[in-house]
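Summary for the funding panel

The consortium committed to producing paired sequence-structure records for every protein in the target list. Below we show the first two records in order, beginning with the earlier of the two.
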Amino acid sequence: MHESRWTRHASSVRNIPSGRETAGAIDALRELLASMSVTERELGLEHRRQAALEGYYDRMTGLLLGHNLQTSAPEDVVRNIARARTLAVLCGLDGGRKALVIRFLYESHLIEAGGPVISLADANLSYSDLTTVNLAGASFMGARLEGAHFRKAALGGADFTSADLTGAYLSGAYLGQATLEGATLKEADLTGTYLSGACFAYANLVGAHLEKAYMLGANFANANLTGADLTDAHLPGVNLTGANLAGTRFAAANLEGAERVSAHIPGADPASVNLHVDNFGGACFQDAHYTRETVWPEGFDPQAAGAVLAEA
């Protein structure tokens, strides 16, 4: 018996997905296409970044070998070209590739402190990953280094004058004799960092972490250390002239032999601080808190200076 036209039509109607099933299938297809699109975009971005980096290497090599960039004079046009290309390529690179650019410039002797061939002022080096890299004596004057990673890096004698290191990671790094005058280090991590002889004059270290840092003879003149943490820090011979130490934590810190401490320290917490200092002339300890374990210089009256004894 032949199937009637009506029977065939009814059967085909039963096989059509419901509206809910159709919508679900469409949504699943859209999600699949979206994920494929994201992956393709990411791969495309990676390809463009790598191509930009390789192109930069090629063009800079041409300037080095064909136009004597390394020995050029400050007024030579080749320096302007090299700087322009460097700033441009950095804007489109990720942190890892930015680090490769810095290593290339450093190893080509183009960013040496005291007279860099290429200035990194305003260069976008944020989130660069320079962990454990040797950049001793490099110039980062005026560079944008927000969130950059310098953990255990060798940065002795490096110049970070006026650089922005907000939230940067410098724990365990070597910054002996480095210059950070006028630099911004808000919330930066300098835990356990070696800072002997480093200059932080006029630097912004609000909320910075300097726990267990070694700062023999470091210069913090007129620096802003509001809310900074110097717990267990070693600061013999440190210069705090005119520094703002409001809310700074000095628990178990060692300031033996510190000089010229005409600092502003309202709200600081020098609990358990070893403050064998040579000169407290003009120091302000208004509302600073200390404990009976705090060691003050002989003849110094902390309460007369405005400090408050914190009873256990």
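The next record, for a separate protein in the list, is shown here:
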Amino acid sequence: MPRFNGHFLWSRLDRVRSREDGMAIPTVLMITTIAFGLAAVAAVGTITAQSGSTRDNRSKTALAAADAGAQLAMQRQNKVATVAATPCVVLSAGNLVAGNLPSGQTWCTGIAGSVGSSTYTYYVKPATGGAGAASVVSVGSNGGITRRI
């Protein structure tokens, strides 16, 4: 059985440590790993910024839909003659007509519509006693984002 020669092992290790052969591969791997890490951080930042931009666009579109609903509500209120007994403007068989308030309510039933890919629903609170102005609330939605005016 051969004997273990410790001196031989230590001399080999000293020779490997003193030479720089073989250091290129670990150095290149380390630099490549760091470069990929920096690229990943930049990619995550870009994706996050794009997501925020998409949400901002949907928010603005939902607000525009709510505004369109409010303008349509006022246009319809001004177009149809209403009286204290029938203060609401409602759609009946595709026509705008004066209608009653829902029992026990102060706001007319909401009327929904769409503008492009967005939807809106508006609600009108008629002026009381023939004086003052009607109040309008409109809710617009786009891509899961909702805005109200």
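Regarding this second record: The mean pLDDT is 86. The CA atoms of residues 21 and 38 lie 28 Å apart.
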